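Components:
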Amino acid sequence: MNNRHDRETRLLAEIFHGDWTEGQTADFARAAAAHARRARAMRSLAVGGAGIVAAAAIALMLFSATSTPRTSVPSSAPAAKGYKIISDDQLLAELRDRPLLVVKKKNGAREFVLLDGE
Amino acid sequence: MTGPSAASLASTVPLSPSRTDASPLRALTMALARGDDASWARFHRDYGPAIFRRLLALTRGDHDLASEALQQTYLRIARYARPCDSEAEFATWLRVVARTALSDCRRRRQSFWQLLRRRAVEPDSANLDAEDDRLLAALDGALALLDADDRALLEAKYLAGADVRSIASRLGISAKAAESRLTRARAELRHRLLAALPRHE
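Structure:
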């Protein structure tokens, strides 16, 4: 029964399209194959493009993370000062029995340099 | 791929995946997705006639529209084909793709009002089998009306499965002459079939 069904189906197809396997409708199959290949190539291209964009984005993020100086410090930690204010007595105590070089700069300012490597 | 199971496309198929034939179908569907020419030729040979028959039933014999929808169906299969192991699932998917392709072809061809008019008379999935039976009955009727020689020729080729060469040698004519007679017989059958089918427009 199914066999007859299949043969009648084939007859119906060839009534309207002539030779089904090699005739005009075979072009449909060839066009579909070409379409599938194009779609596949486009998908690969899209996936490759997306991969490249993602890699570039990650690289950019990593680069910016490593090259940007850290300007922010935890707000709870007070900024460390580069100097300390001491009294005259404390200063004299620090300099007692130690060689000291006094350099006079062009602008008139004087710079004190400890020569004992401290 | 074994038999085309052409009838399975037109009849109701149980949705129980049969894994017995899994591997060849998977190979075929993967090759279709890849756009392999040989696999597409095989798909066209094995599945195409059944899809066309279904479209012919859906369009009530509008073979131009059915052919256009067949082409669109192939393109959609090319775009969306994925590896599949189950003949039943594949057949169901093909039916859905063919039907949506046909709907889109109709939409392109017709105005909104024509579309509404057609929707009112188009066979739904419930009576599509009846429509398909009517198509095959019309084919049998058209065959019966043919000249006896033409009918014998077509029955030998399509129902008995004889090839053109053996038909030619039985008739004592060349294969080319047998092919010409077959072409004429098919044209006559087509003419009678279209006359027997209800007008599709």
